[in-house]
Amino acid sequence: MNDKATGIVIKQIDYKDNDAIITVYCPEYDKVSLYVKGYKKITSKNVYATQLFDESAFLFDYNPAKGFQILKSASLIREHAPIKADYDKTVIASLICEVADELWPEGGYSELKSALDMLDDYPESYTVLNLYLAQALKQAGIGPNVDGCSICGSTEGIEAVSMSEGGFVCHNCNSQLHLPVSEVSYLRQVRIINKASFEVADKLIGLGLDSFQLTELLMSFMNNYLDANFRSYKSLVNLHK
Known about the structure:
This protein has helices at residues 81-84, 87-102, 109-121, 125-140, 171-177, 184-195, 212-225, 231-239; strands at residues 3-15, 19-26, 30-36, 55-60, 69-78, 158-162, 167-170. It is built from 8 helices and 7 strands; from the N terminus they run E-E-E-E-E-H-H-H-H-E-E-H-H-H-H. It folds into 2 domains: 3-79, CATH 2.40.50.140; 82-143 and 183-239, de novo design (two linked rop proteins). The protein is an alpha+beta fold. Helix 2 runs antiparallel to helix 3 and helix 2 packs parallel to helix 4 (125-140). The strands form 2 sheets. Strands 1-2-3-5-4 form a 5-stranded mixed barrel.
């Protein structure tokens, strides 16, 4: 009774006329679905703490046998106003939340919180996104191999990235694959983003990681292994057409 959790709203689905079911990512339960009565009513006492991206403290009676829990109350901790005020950041944050929901359903609260907190005021929004995507791929065991050639293991002459081979490919092996040769600077960026963590985020500014090209690569690896429809990614692609 009166179970408490501090978490981030990563999904909201309209339910009936005025209600909603939100998905909260939290360290206590990983993902938990909460039924919010009167969600669409401006007079609702919980409406300002249950919006997408909100970090809040939630009170409910947890019953693992039920598909969703009835929310009793919610108290806002951080609303991520800078994200909500910027369309590009909103789309990026939405993709982060979708990936958390689909690819990182357990044990990823710290990284999710770090990504959204950084996105508020970090000067390179796509660096934040790419760092989160790389971390999500790594924990799922489907991140690109950036330690050497994915075919022969050589660390010399790396010149391309292959989806089918799972990462870097050297010149000798690429003579059979005929993949487009990438710039050395781009390959360096691919390696850095896949080796970095949120703990060193302050050192990543200015390294060329604020790149939608990197986002496309990481999402290609994700889509190669995961049958998911990321609506926010389609919006990002449209932004770059």
